[in-house]
């Protein structure tokens, strides 16, 4: 790739880098990777100062506030559903990406 060029792609695409080597081994060289995360500057992040404890053992109260909290079983169930949802999304992206052809990469 010529110097000064940038390749960018969405995080949904999987990628694999093979071994790299210099075309001219008599000259010094390197390969750098830069990860850029785009964020919405108008979105306010929630601070831990404003979030109540998530584990029922940390509340130390009479249990009234834990009525809205989920227990470990519910959390693990929700996590499993999320993992399945991500797997379905990844399969869909893979199907779409497998129909695309990218030129200029070896």
Automatic annotation (TrEMBL):
High-level lineage: Eukaryota, Fungi, Dikarya, Ascomycota, Pezizomycotina
Protein known as: DUF4246 domain-containing protein
Residues covered by the DUF4246 domain: 2-59
Source domain of life: Eukaryota
Pfam families: DUF4246
Species this chain originates from: Penicillium desertorum
């Amino acid at each position: 790739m010529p110097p000064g060029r940038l390749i960018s792609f969405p995080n949904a695409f999987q990628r694999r880098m093979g071994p790299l080597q210099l075309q001219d081994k008599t000259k010094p060289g390197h390969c750098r990777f830069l990860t850029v995360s785009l964020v919405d500057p108008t979105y306010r992040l929630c601070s831990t100062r404003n979030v109540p404890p998530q584990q029922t053992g940390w509340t130390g109260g009479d249990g009234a506030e834990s009525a809205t909290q989920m227990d470990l079983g519910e959390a693990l169930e929700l996590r499993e559903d999320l993992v399945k949802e991500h797997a379905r999304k990844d399969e869909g992206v893979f199907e779409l990406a497998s129909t695309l052809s990218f030129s200029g990469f070896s």
